[in-house]
Amino acid sequence: MKRPATLIRGDGIGPEIMEATLRVLEAAGAEFEWDEQLAGLEALNEVGDPLPDATIESIRRTRLALKGPLTTPVGVGFRSVNVALRKEFDLYANVRPARSILPDGRYQDVDLVLVRENTEGLYVGVETFIQVAGDPKAVAQSVAIVTRVGCERIVRFAFEYALANGRKKVTICHKANILKAVSGLFLDVGREVAKEYAGRVEVDDVIIDACAMKLVLDPAQFDVIVTTNMFGDILSDEIAGLVGGLGLAPGANIGASAAIFEAVHGSAPDIAGKGVANPSALILAACMMLDHVGERDRAEAIRRALERTIREDGVRTRDLGGDVKTLQFADAVCRRLG
C-alpha cells in the first residue's frame, strides 16, 4: 500500500531537482501516494497566496511532505513560507546531516548530524526600535525567548535520534559563559536530560565559537550536535561547507504532528530551466524521509548509489566540478540502483 505524502515541487530549480528525485525514488521501489500542492512564488502567482490553505490541509492529512526550494523576496513581499510551515506545524527540530562524499574533498571523515531547535531564540522575531533624541531608529532591540519545555524537547530529540541511528555522542553547543539566562537555561536543561541517557550515549558540551573552530580543525570529533536556533542556523551551513556545499546538504523539519523534508539550498533562479542544478540534496532529503517512515534499507541503498555515482563513476553536476545535467545525474544514480 502506498504511503500518502504531500509533494511541493517549489520555485526556480525546484521542479527540475524534484523530477530527478522522483526518478530515483521510483527506481529504488519507494512507493508514495503523492498529493501535489503549491507553495512559494508559484503559489502566489497561481492562486494569490504563497501558502494556500489546500497545502496546509494536505500536510495536516498526510503528516509527511517532500518540498523543493521556495523563493522568499528579500526586503519586500511575503514572509518566508518555510518559517510559516514551521510555525503552523510546530516543527521544532531541524535535522541537518553531513557526510563526506567527494573523493577529492578537503575532509574525508565527516559524518555528523546537527540538530537545531527551530522555534525559539532570537528568531521568534520579537524586535523593536527605541527612539532617542528624535531619532526613531536610534536603538534596535531584539529579544531571545527560550523556554524550558523547548530546550528539553530538542535535547531529548537529539539523544533519541542518536539512539535510533547508532550514534555514540551528543554535543551540547551553547554560549552560557556570556548569555547566562537564555543559553544557560539550554545548557542546564541539556545536562539534566543527558543524565537519562548515561551509559547509552556519551555527552559533552562546547561553547559556540570553540565549536566553529573545532569543526574546521577536526570535524571527526563530532557525532551529533544539538544547539539553539540561531547558532544552529550558522553551524549547519558551516558543516555543509565541510562536505562540498549546500548542493549536498539535505534537511528535515520535524514535529509531533508532521515532518517536512527538503533541500536546504535556495531556488537559484539564475540557473532555473537550464537543467544544470544538482539534485543530490533533495535526493538525500528523500532518503531522510524514507528513514522517517521506517524504510531504512531503501534509504541506504539510494545513499550508496548516489555516493558511488559521484566517487567511483565520476558523475558530477556543474557545482561539483562536472558537466552532467540534472536528469543525467539522476539516471546515473538509477543505474547504480539497478
Your description of this structure?
The chain has helices at about 15-25, 40-45, 55-60, 80-90, 150-165, 180-195, 210-215, 230-240, 280-290, 295-310, 325-335; strands spanning about 5-10, 30-35, 65, 95-100, 110-115, 120-130, 135-145, 170-175, 200-205, 225, 250-255, 260-265. The chain has two domains: about 1-90 and about 250-338, Isopropylmalate Dehydrogenase, CATH 3.40.718.10; about 105-240, Isopropylmalate Dehydrogenase, CATH 3.40.718.10. Helices cover about 40% and strands about 25% of the residues. α1 packs parallel to α11 and α10 (about 295-310) crosses α11. It has eleven helices and twelve strands. The strands form two sheets. A ten-stranded mixed sheet has the order 2-1-3-12-11-4-5-10-8-9, sandwiched between helices. Strands 6-7 form a two-stranded antiparallel sheet. The longest helix has 17 residues, at about 150-165. It is an alpha/beta fold and about 350 residues long.
Nutshell version of this structure?
The chain is an alpha/beta fold and 338 residues long.
CATH architecture of the largest domain: 3-Layer(aba) Sandwich
Strand neighbour order, sheet with most strands: 2-1-3-12-11-4-5-10-8-9
Summed up, the helix count is 11
- The number of domains is 2
Low-pLDDT residue intervals, each spanning 5 or more residues: none
Strand content: 15-25%
CATH topology of the largest domain: Isopropylmalate Dehydrogenase
- Could you give the count of β-strands? 12
CATH class of the largest domain: Alpha Beta
